[in-house]
Structure formats: structure tokens, C-alpha cells
Design goal:
The protein has six helices and 28 strands. By secondary structure, it is mostly beta strands. The protein starts with a helix and ends with a strand.
Length: about 475
């Protein structure tokens, strides 16, 4: 009798209840997946190892618009981006679709109490991108708007619709990191679970190069504007290395576990350095790094049922993720069409002296400067602990982005002070010319932007826990 009464009164951290029989609920001593860190050297669990395999399918759509100097154009869309001038007018140019199917492999290894190392390896099964005529416009109308005068006065299209990129596949990067749960509520119920982590991203394989799905007769499928560059391949990743720092926290109270997190991500060119800095390290470049990303996450896990004795758990996870994406230089929906363009203003090299003596040619590979913007993603997931060593997760997400410029490189870098007789000054009043600048796409009245970007994601994951 005394043992039965004592068993009914035992209360584990976070509101857990100890069972008297097989049918009574036993709550887990681990947080939900957002703040869970595998560990080692616990009294009854000396070593943890998780192996995961997942599949994700992601569709990104949006409308590419081009700025026009003709405010009477019948297809004009007025601006709604921050910093836009009242005189700016935009025309729908193309509908963009980007579909990716990816296999995800993961490995988590516990090295001490609440300390783990992890590895993530994505394998892109297919990556397809295409530009088609936007709703309400014909292909002929759009192609007429894409014709731009070249330096000799001829009418040459920047690209033509429909435009399809080659279907790419391969391993774009490898993530390696470490996580530490500084506090663990299920070790000390008076403290929340607090996790910090650092992840390094390492580029693998050939970076993306601008290519056609079917090149016009007489042109290479993956044209190289640099005659000395050799044969090019479509590639798969952005060829950048990166570092992601993140902090997460959660608090379990009976059947709910609210949580939140902050993250910051930076990147720099790796194998794609020759695309980011064509011609080498030149003083005129304004942007040579991909956009930096700041991220905030808030969410709530609801655990309506779990049984520690049977190693079973069922959880619903609701999450909202907001991101700030800074100005930067890199790949965009227009990398393939612009980078493979036959327009002379994009194929001819820009010449800049490197050090006051030599001169270097800078070619255009399709990478452009993009403006800062925001993203929001809503996610719903179902997580099921089926048995002691097996866990499954299904998730869906929908997100959107504010409008942002796809091409807007400044003509001059005012931060470099040179004499009036320095040829790098060109027509700049101050500073020197920016080799990334291409007037045909970067000048006001000719710029491109992304409008109405929408992302739909689905993922399924199976995890073996040892």
C-alpha cells in the first residue's frame, strides 16, 4: 500500500509522471527534436548514435519582373519594394519554377553528457529550373521586352522564353558540426533546455555554371565567356563554404513544449571563387560574398501521448521561421539565362587594372548583386517514436519572401580613393569602376527583381537510434 501511494506521488522534471502499471503514462526524459542532443556516458546509456535517412521535395515559384523606363507600358506593375522610387515601373517577364528532390543522410554521435558531433550530407536527385511566360502574357510579348540594344545598336535578346536549365544532380555540400546542451531540463527541472551549436559547411563537387537545357545550334550547352577557361559542366552547388551559429531553448510543461531559437549564417566563396571574383581580387568589387542570413524561430511541440516504458511518443510540432537576408552577390533565378546569354554587353570582358600596372579581364558568369529581403516559413510536423530504436517524422512547410532586386550592382565603388589619372576611375566621379556592374541589367530602368516568391516543402525522415 505504501509503495503504491509513493508511486502515485512521484513527479519527474517538467511534469512527468511515474507509472504504477503498464497502462499508465510515463513521460520521456528527453526534449522534443528541436532541442534534443544525443549524449554519452550516462549511467544506463553509455553511448548514443543516431543515423537518419530522409527525403525532401521543394518547389519554389515566383514572378521575375524587369524595370522599364516606359511608364505607359501596358503591363506596368508599380513598385512595392523598400527604397523604390515613385517613378519606377515594373513589367512581368517570366514565371520561375525551381523543383528539387533531395535525399538527406545524417549522423549524430554522443561524445559526453549532452555533447554531440553531427554530420549532414544531402544528395540532390534532381534540380530543375525553368522560366516560362507569366500569366496573362504571351511568349512573343515577353521576348520582345527582353530585347536590349547592344553597344553597336543591334537588337539582341538577353535570353528567350521558354528557358530551361539542365537537370542537375549530385552532392552540393557537406555539413559538420557540434552541439552542446548547456542546460537540460530533464536533468535539472528548474532550468530550461538550452542548446548552442556551430555548423561548418564545406562545398563539394563542381559549382553551378550557367547552362542551357538545349543550347541553340552553333553554341555550347554550357558556354564559357572566358576563352581560356576550358570546358564547363552544369555543376550542382553554389561552391561556397559557410559557418552557422545557433542557440535554441525549450521548456517542457506536461504535454506542451514551447521553444525558440536564433541563428546567424555567413558564407564565403570556395570552389566558386572564380565566379564570385572574376579576374581575381580587384579593388573595385563592391560585393564578393553571398548574402548573410539572420534567423529567428518560435514554435510549440504538443505531446498528447507518450510511454517511456514502451519507448513510444507521438508529437505535433508547429513552427514559424523568419529570416533576414542581407545584400550580397551570388546565384539567382537568372544565373542560367543571363550567364549563358549571347548579348555582347554580357559576354565582353570588363578590363580593370589590378595594382596600377597590370590589367585583368573580368567576365560575367551570371552571378549578380541582390538586395536585402525577408523570408517567413510556417512548418507543421508529426514526429513518431515507434520503438526504442526507431523514430519517424513527416513535415510540410509553406513560405514566402518580400520582393527583392536580382540585379543592381553599383557602377562605381566610392570606397577606393585614387587619382584623377588612374584608368580604373573610368567615368566615376569618386572611387573606381565596379567590374561586377553591367549596365544592361544593373542600371535603373533595366534591373530585374523577384516578386511573389513562394516555397512549398515536404519531407519524410526515418531515424535509427542506438
Amino acid at each position: 500500500m505504501r509503495l503504491a501511494a509513493a508511486g502515485a506521488l512521484v513527479w519527474l522534471g517538467g511534469g512527468a509522471a511515474l507509472a504504477q502499471d503498464d497502462e499508465t503514462l510515463w513521460l520521456y526524459r528527453e526534449p522534443t527534436s528541436f532541442t534534443d542532443v544525443v549524449d554519452a556516458f550516462d549511467e544506463h546509456d553509455p553511448f548514443d548514435l543516431n543515423v537518419s535517412v530522409g527525403f525532401s521535395r521543394s518547389l519554389l515559384t515566383g514572378v521575375v519582373q524587369r524595370e522599364t523606363n516606359d511608364p505607359m507600358h501596358p503591363e506596368v506593375r508599380r513598385p512595392d519594394v523598400s527604397g523604390a522610387r515613385a517613378s519606377e515601373a515594373w513589367v512581368d517577364i517570366a514565371k520561375f519554377e525551381h523543383l528539387r528532390n533531395i535525399l538527406h543522410f545524417g549522423l549524430d554521435v554522443g561524445v559526453y553528457h549532452d555533447v554531440a558531433l553531427f554530420l549532414r550530407l544531402p544528395v540532390v536527385l534532381s534540380d530543375s529550373r525553368e522560366l516560362t511566360a507569366p500569366e496573362g502574357r504571351t511568349t512573343e510579348e515577353v521576348n520582345a521586352d527582353l530585347v536590349a540594344a547592344d553597344p553597336d545598336g543591334r537588337a539582341v535578346p538577353l535570353f528567350q522564353l521558354p528557358f530551361r536549365s539542365p537537370t542537375r544532380s549530385g552532392v552540393p555540400w557537406l555539413d559538420v558540426g557540434a552541439a552542446w546542451a548547456i542546460f537540460n531540463q530533464h536533468r535539472n527541472r528548474h532550468l530550461p533546455t538550452w542548446v548552442v551549436s556551430a555548423t561548418g559547411r564545406f562545398a563539394t563537387g563542381e559549382p553551378v555554371h550557367a547552362c542551357f537545357d538545349r543550347a541553340p545550334m552553333g553554341r555550347d550547352r554550357c558556354p564559357n565567356p572566358n576563352p581560356a577557361g576550358g570546358t564547363l559542366e552544369p555543376g550542382i552547388g553554389d561552391g561556397t563554404n559557410g559557418l552557422r551559429l545557433e542557440t535554441r531553448a525549450s521548456w517542457r510543461s506536461r504535454y506542451i513544449e514551447p521553444y525558440g531559437g536564433l541563428a546567424f549564417q555567413i558564407g564565403w566563396p570556395g570552389s566558386s571563387k572564380r565566379w564570385f571574383e572574376p579576374g581575381g581580387d580587384l579593388a573595385g568589387f563592391m560585393n564578393t560574398l553571398p548574402p548573410r542570413i539572420g534567423e529567428m524561430t518560435v514554435g510549440l511541440a504538443i505531446i498528447p501521448w507518450e510511454h517511456r516504458g514502451r519507448w513510444q511518443r507521438f508529437a505535433l510540432d508547429f513552427r514559424l521561421v523568419g529570416q533576414y537576408v542581407s545584400e550580397g552577390h551570388g546565384y539567382t533565378p537568372l544565373t542560367d539565362p543571363l550567364g549563358s546569354s549571347a548579348h555582347p554587353a554580357l559576354t565582353e570582358a570588363v578590363n580593370e587594372r589590378a595594382d596600377g600596372a597590370g590589367a585583368r579581364n573580368t567576365y560575367f558568369y551570371g552571378l549578380t548583386d541582390t538586395s536585402s529581403h525577408g523570408r517567413v516559413m510556417a512548418r507543421v510536423a508529426i514526429e513518431m517514436q515507434a520503438a526504442r530504436y526507431v523514430r519517424f517524422a513527416l513535415e510540410g512547410a509553406v513560405g514566402g519572401s518580400t520582393s527583392y532586386l536580382l540585379t543592381f550592382a553599383d557602377a562605381c565603388n566610392p570606397n577606393v580613393d585614387v587619382g584623377d589619372d588612374d584608368p580604373r576611375r573610368g567615368d566615376c566621379r569618386t572611387g573606381i569602376i565596379n567590374p561586377h556592374h553591367r549596365p544592361v541589367i544593373d542600371m535603373p530602368g533595366r534591373r530585374f527583381r523577384m516578386q511573389g516568391e513562394l516555397t512549398l516543402d515536404f519531407a519524410a525522415t526515418a531515424i535509427a537510434q542506438f
